[in-house]
Structure formats: structure tokens, C-alpha cells
């Protein structure tokens, strides 16, 4: 085989890999399921369904508001009782073909439908772009924005921990707010990193941020999980000290509009009465 043929073959394989990575990044999110015993005994709701969305990262070329609207329709078809969004609404990719305002990015989310409403925390990209603009856009869309505080949602109390990656989190304040309201506790955080510090009375924590690695190569593994704990809390369901952490792979992408070995996903978490 000549050098030219080798180079042509290498270029073809590289192009095919990039096409596969982009196709994966723009595919419909996989719906993953988990169950946690959380609904308090005696509640009129014996079972609740909570939907976790994370890392939406609206930005061209892979996540347009139009694509997000299709994902919202997919989410509504799951008929959740509450929707929890774990931050990073927008994207600042190195190779972005288009940047969107928070208003444009959040607009499709106003169509989310659930019994108790939609709740969200900010992520590092939201803080880096403009936290106030992010919060204002979500409020206009009817989304409850939580920043180291908590809110009741039926028998649930949802605590929202502001972004730990940028140092805006205050776990103590969030826990105090949750304790004051009572109810079955769920902690929503952009990053999973605070999980070891969460007391066992908080049985469920939901997070994103890691993208489950986003680009996980054979033999090499993930390039980075952007977590101080490495792969320990980077993806899926983790049970530790009588509490459960669920980390979503997210919907959009960061840095590059590609995904290898970490497909987009959303989680429907069924909360049962013990």
C-alpha cells in the first residue's frame, strides 16, 4: 500500500469517526430508569416519577432550540410528576457554529409539563456566561430556580445546590432550607462532587456536569470527567452510605459537538413508598 493510499484510508476512517461522534451527539436521548424508596409512608402518593434533565448546552451545531423542543416533547410523553434540570443551559464550544441567548435557549423549556412543575439549578457554563440572565430567562419560562435553597413539591422537598464547580455552592444553607420545609428530600446539584458530604438523611441526589465522560475511547477511557473524584461519581447510579446519587450523561455537548461511548440521556426516577 502506497503512502497516498494509507493517508487516504486514514482520512476516511477519521471522517467516519467524526461523523459517528456527531450522529451520536445529536441522537434522541436514551431514557434510563431508576427506583428509589423515598415517598413517606402514609402519603396519598404511593409512587411519584421525577425526570432528570442535565447539561442541555444549547448552541450550534448540535443543540438548537428546535432540537430541544423535540426533546421536551419526548420528556412530556414520560408523564413525570416533577422535572429537575441540573444546570448548564447554554454551551460555549470551541467550534460553535451559533451562540444563543438564554432567552432563546430556555424558551422550549416553557413547554415542559408535570404535576408539580420544573425546578433547576445553575451550572458552571451558566455562571461563566451570565448567571443573572440565566435565572431571569428561566423565571420567565415558569421554571423554579433554586440557589442554595429549597421548595416543597407535593410530598417532596427539593433542595437546589448552586454550582460547586465554580464555588457557588452552600450545602449547609441548602440542607437547613430543606429541613425547615420538611418532606421527602431530593437534592439537585449541577456537579456530583458534593455527594460525599451529603448526610444520609438525604436519600437521593441528582446531578449532571460530567457528561459521563462525553468522549470515552476504547482502552483509553474518558478524556476527562471534570470531577475531583474522577470516575467514582461520574455516571449512572451510585449507592453509598444509605443514599443514592444519579448522574445523567446530559443532552448536549461541551467543547466539541461529539460523543463517543456516552450517549445523550434523561432519567426517569420512580420514587416508591417503602
UniProtKB/TrEMBL annotation:
InterPro entries reported in the protein's UniProt record: Calcineurin-like_PHP (IPR004843), Metallo-depent_PP-like (IPR029052), Metallophosphoesterase_sf (IPR051158)
Hydrolase as UniProt keyword: yes
Calcineurin-like phosphoesterase domain residues: 48-212
Gene3D superfamilies noted in UniProt: 3.60.21.10
GO MF terms, alphabetically ordered: metal ion binding; UDP-2,3-diacylglucosamine hydrolase activity
Keyword terms, alphabetized: Hydrolase, Metal-binding
GO cellular component, one term: membrane
One BP term from GO: lipid A biosynthetic process
Entry protein name: Calcineurin-like phosphoesterase domain-containing protein
Amino acid at each position: 500500500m502506497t503512502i497516498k493510499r494509507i493517508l487516504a484510508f486514514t482520512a476516511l476512517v477519521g471522517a467516519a469517526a467524526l461523523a459517528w461522534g456527531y450522529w451520536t451527539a445529536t441522537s434522541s436521548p436514551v431514557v434510563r430508569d431508576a427506583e428509589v424508596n423515598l415517598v413517606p409512608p402514609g402519603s396519598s402518593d404511593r409512587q411519584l416519577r421525577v425526570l432528570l434533565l442535565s447539561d442541555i448546552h444549547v448552541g450550534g451545531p448540535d443543540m438548537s432550540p428546535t432540537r430541544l423542543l423535540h426533546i421536551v416533547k419526548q420528556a412530556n410523553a414520560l408523564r413525570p410528576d416533577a422535572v429537575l434540570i441540573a444546570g448548564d443551559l447554554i454551551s460555549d464550544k470551541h467550534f460553535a457554529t451559533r451562540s444563543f441567548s438564554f432567552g432563546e435557549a430556555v424558551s422550549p423549556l416553557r413547554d415542559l409539563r408535570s404535576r408539580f412543575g420544573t425546578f433547576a439549578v445553575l451550572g458552571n457554563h451558566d455562571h461563566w456566561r451570565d448567571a443573572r440572565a440565566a435565572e431571569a430567562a428561566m423565571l420567565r419560562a415558569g421554571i423554579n430556580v433554586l440557589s442554595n435553597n429549597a421548595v416543597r413539591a407535593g410530598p417532596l422537598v427539593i433542595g437546589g445546590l448552586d454550582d460547586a464547580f465554580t464555588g457557588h455552592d452552600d450545602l449547609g444553607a441548602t440542607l437547613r432550607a430543606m429541613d425547615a420545609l420538611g418532606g421527602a428530600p431530593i437534592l439537585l446539584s449541577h456537579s456530583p462532587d458534593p455527594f460525599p458530604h451529603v448526610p444520609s438523611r438525604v436519600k437521593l441526589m441528582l446531578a449532571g456536569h460530567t457528561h459521563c465522560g462525553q468522549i470515552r475511547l476504547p482502552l483509553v477511557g474518558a478524556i476527562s470527567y471534570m470531577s475531583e473524584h474522577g470516575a467514582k461519581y461520574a455516571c449512572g447510579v451510585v449507592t453509598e452510605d444509605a443514599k443514592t446519587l444519579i448522574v445523567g450523561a446530559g443532552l448536549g455537548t461541551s467543547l466539541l459537538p461529539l460523543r463517543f461511548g456516552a450517549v445523550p440521556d434523561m432519567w426517569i426516577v420512580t420514587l416508591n413508598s417503602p
